[in-house]
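Kindly review this protein for my students:
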Amino acid sequence: MNKNRLRPRQMMAPALAVAIATSGLAACGSSDSGKSGASGSDVVRALLAAQPATLDPIVGPRSGQVIWATMLEPLIKLDADLNMVDSGLVTSWTRTDQTSWTFKVRPGISFTNGEKADAAAVANTILLTRDSEASQLKTYFTNIVSAEAPDATTVVVKTKTPQYDLPELLTTVYLVPPKYYKEKGSEGFAAAPVGTGPYLWAGSHAGRDMSVKKNPDYWGAKPSNDGVTFSWATEASQRLALVQSKSVDVAFDLPPTKADEAKKAGLDVVSTTTAMKIIAFIDSTKAPFKDPKLREAAALAIDRDAIVSGIFDGKAVADSGLLNVKPGAEPSRSVTPDPAKAKELVGGASPTVQISYPAGQYTNIKEVSEAVGGNLEKVGFKVKYVPLDYGTLTKRIIGREVPGVSIFAGVPNVPIPDYFASGFMKTTSITGNCPDPKTDKLIAKALQQDNAEAASPIYDELNTIGVVDKHCYVPLYRQVFNYATLPNVKGVEFGPLNTVDFTKTAL
């Protein structure tokens, strides 16, 4: 044990002054304020870039899963290669006919409040995901007609039309206890989550930190530590300073320059190419981009390679496709920057373009947005920047209130093309920036194929339509995620789908 380690309640004083306190959990530090925190000598102190908006996995963006996934578990697990495995709560999946799936649930599991984590709980969580008004995953589950539990270990799901990827979707659905969730509601559940996972909720201080502790009754392999305390600091320089001063054990989301500084300071730095990609979404439903020529001009003006080399010093991965989800995959067709042609398409009109982006949400997102704007200005556009907090930008996008260009991350919680196809390309998708009946039909057709291999050519066609033909999406780059740990900290496992496993972390 490092003698310089501070106890969880003593840490983070410098960072707390700048921690996000305005978008936190509604009931995060009330009766347990001052009493929260994991106990024991081996508590991992993890520093995040932002406070999660909520710990409710039904309605919350997946950026919050770094915390809730310590306590809650997905229905189906993925291995390191992003393949489904039978070692989770759901142990098998069988397509019994074109519109029916049968799932087997691991017997004998209970939630930490004593409720049974059985087939009825699994069916209830699937239906909550489909039916909750604020569900983040609603669009992916609207094809489900029913989810029933004929016995304690069997769930039968029926769909309106064939859907080959239903098991993959369940890898991002986290099991919640039916009675507790109904009693507490979304805000109450988020204030004190209950799951089946390796950790238990240990309390919080509103706007400051959240803690989990080891679950002694966990059905799987027990954690190698006593718990995790999560705090946050929006400035990368502060995150680096806090891990350098040994006030925290691991600091996440360091931009390349700070990662280099961390290495020089003797810290251990891990870099992972993620499936998260930053994308410029062009709204074809509003001026100026109702004009397809101006959409093409914008797409031809943006130089993703220059962004990667100039802003990230080559420590990001330029990506020209939308539906090539897994790291390393490439689309068959893409757009090559051509500023001269872009300038010709714009002509002398000088159209004004609004660029909206989530300030502070992603590494160097302000610089990236300004680089995109600079590219557009060079070919004749006038640019207006609109930085917003992530929650506000998301609400405005969903409300179809953001004209021009929106720059934010596409995070495929599931490593399948439909996650972006249904999430971004459908007329009824999250963004709704490129409605097209042909696209809707192709997405439905892809899902009705027998397997991923059969659907692949359709997704390639969809990528070409959205990126190359209609210029509604300008993929920029995949993020290389950097985090630094103290030299004595081992076993922090960060995955390409932006997941973190702390169970093997030892101090």
Notes: The chain is about 30% helix and 20% strand.
